[in-house]
What we know:
Blueprint: E1 2-9, E2 12-17, E3 20-25, H1 29-35, E4 42-48, H2 56-67, E5 71-73, H3 78-97, H4 108-128, E6 134-138, H5 145-152, E7 157-161, H6 169-172, H7 178-185, E8 190-193, H8 196-210, E9 214-215, E10 218-221, E11 224-230, H9 237-241, H10 250-260, E12 264-271, H11 278-291, E13 299-306, H12 313-333, E14 341-344, H13 350-359, E15 362-365, H14 374-382, E16 389-393, E17 406-408, H15 413-425, H16 428-444, H17 447-470, H18 475-486, E18 491-495, H19 515-526, E19 530-535, H20 540-547, E20 553-556, E21 561-563, E22 569-571, H21 580-592, E23 597-600, E24 604-608, H22 614-635, E25 638-642, E26 645-649, H23 655-665, E27 670-675, H24 680-686, E28 692-696, E29 705-707, H25 713-752
Parallel strand pairs: 1-4, 1-6, 4-5, 6-7, 7-8, 8-11, 12-13, 12-15, 13-14, 15-16, 16-17, 18-19, 18-27, 19-20, 27-28, 28-29
Antiparallel strand pairs: 2-3, 9-10, 10-11, 20-21, 21-22, 23-24, 24-26, 25-26
Amino acid sequence: MKLFIVSNRLPVKVAEKEGQLLFTRSEGGLATGLDSLQTQYEKHWIGWPGLNVEKSEDRQRIREELEKLDFHPVFLTGEQIENYYEGYSNSTIWPLCHYFFSFTQYRQDFWETYREVNRIFCEEVRHLVGPDDIVWVQDYQLMLLPGMLREIMPTLCIGYFHHIPFPSYELFRILPERAEILQGLLGADLIAFHTHDYMHHFISSVKRVLHMDFKLDEAQIGNRYIWVDALPMGIDYEKFHRISSSIDVKPLIARTRAHFGNRKLVLSVDRLDYSKGILHRLHGFDSFLKQHPEYLSKVTLVMVIVPSRDQVGSYADLKTRIDEEISAINGRYSTMDWTPICYFYHSFSFEELTAMYYVADVALVTPLRDGMNLVAKEYVAVKNGNPGVLILSEMAGASVELADALQINPNDTEQIAAALDRALEMPIEEQLQRMQRMQATIAEQTVNKWAADFMAELDGVCRKNSSVRRRKLTPDAAEQILHTYRNTRQRLLIFDYDGTLVPICRKLEEATPTRALYKVLCDLAADRNNNVVISSGRDPATLERWFGKLPVSLAAEHGAFYKEAKGEWHQNLHHVSWDPELLDLINLFVERTPHSRLEQKQTALAWHYREADDWLGTLRAQQLVNALIPICMRLNLQIMPGNKVVEIKSPEFSKGSETRRLLRRERYDFILAMGDDTTDNDMFQALPKAAVTIKVGAVSEYARYSLWRQSDVLPFLETLAASGNSTNSVRETVAHGIRTVWEHFRNLLINKR
């Protein structure tokens, strides 16, 4: 079995120098974490090699070299790289997810190429993976890939991790392709984010855009459960924590200290990007120097900016503004022997960077929005017994774990200035205590644990989905049911109505019976061996209007009323006089929830919110249930949360009690029950184990089989009816033949006399 990690880039750098191809392994956090992942699976990696390769012979050579490392390259053209990576990924998705809406570019060719490249990745995966393998897709460049893989490999185990922020619904809804992107992500079995905020935003967007239901962190599409979780990514803690004692780093630490002397060192390390808040940071440092002249010549801001996309217009403009601001601050405060900002526009080696981490008195990490920000964790990890203070943006994902950092709003430059003053004045003992508490956290939540936790959770949901698939009403299982049905003489068939015999409709009055439903019910009821029962939460008047003339039995309001075929209605519970306090409470929620309504039945109250906003309806339903508990306990009433409905009724009768009544009346050698809601579990539980119980939609632990789509119910029942009619035809033919033979012999006897 194999684990295929799929990302935009392979963890290897392929470069061409003097006609020769050079291969260098990446030292990135993701590559490190996944390389160290302990798993039974053989690990493979699929991605773009980072080079535009046009010659087929060069592509073949790269493929052969990389496959020695179990790396599988996906080759892209220059135009595809421009439109998919620089275009849709980094000019549409990246600014939107980082709340820079004004920077977002919408171009149809960007989107079409993004979809095309995701399809290319899909084909590469399809050729490599087997049915028992696992695919782990990484990040926003490949959000359509899980859905594409699901279409062609329905049972494949697929995970997805989103490494950048996921925006709130109000921002995400702006995206023209929002529905297709969400459907693509929902192809995964497990979707994970760095923080619970991003997880919440994703679930909210799915609910509102796709009108899907979530039960806490779980949703279901057909035969498959989808889990959503927050799993913060860490670093290789021990690697960073031990580095200060390395023989390669010790001289660099001494050199850095000697260079800056006795001055306090404030360190800032970022990639060039508008989301990093670099200009706000500079303005905050400028304000600090203005307000605290006593620190002039005593503190230096070391600003390291790693070049990134500086040929793109918005990035080039940002670079110009940063250069101008640094020049202005240095020009304003510099002396002959001191420059306030020491600026580097290039990357440093791992050893040089960690030496700066170790020496720095303060790390200034203030992104305007960041998925995680590992620089903050690296700074904390490197501190091995020496003090330091982390100033951290509350907009960085790392802020959730690093509670002992001085957390600031990165948009507030005065708060940045105040935090710098507090950091530089903080007692050494407090610095060490804060640092030790943060180190205890990140030493536990390492990149290795992140990868292992993801794989364990992915394994859990895939095992659950495998179990669910075994409950599917397969053709073989259906044939066995038909065989049993044909060979039995006393049958009980119980059907729920809404969501089972007809699809769920946003408006109750739209869920009327179809001609096809009437026909199949009549066909089933025409078989004298069948007792057909519709057991519903609907009121008796509605069921009588729709089915009163059919030869079927009816049960209304969850068993409070029942009627035998073409008989009279019987009432198990007399009309209830509802408590005014209860009615006032539910009517209050009707007022507070647009498009919700109260249905007053004879023995039950139902608050429907199917037409309401998904998020608001779910919130109000939870609030209503909480508010109902003390009232219903006092009145001895049962609260029944259902599919977009909260019902209040007497606990004396249910679909289970109605099922038990039916079983007391007759002995049956075949029982079939079908339902889609939680209320139908009472019916399933009341039946003997040999009964054929089928849950429509979401799987139930109380039902033997699952039928994933409501649209499959009528075809199944039509097959059942045809099977019974066929059997009846055979029986009638045999009976006719026996009667004919008997008449023949009877006539012979008469003639002899």
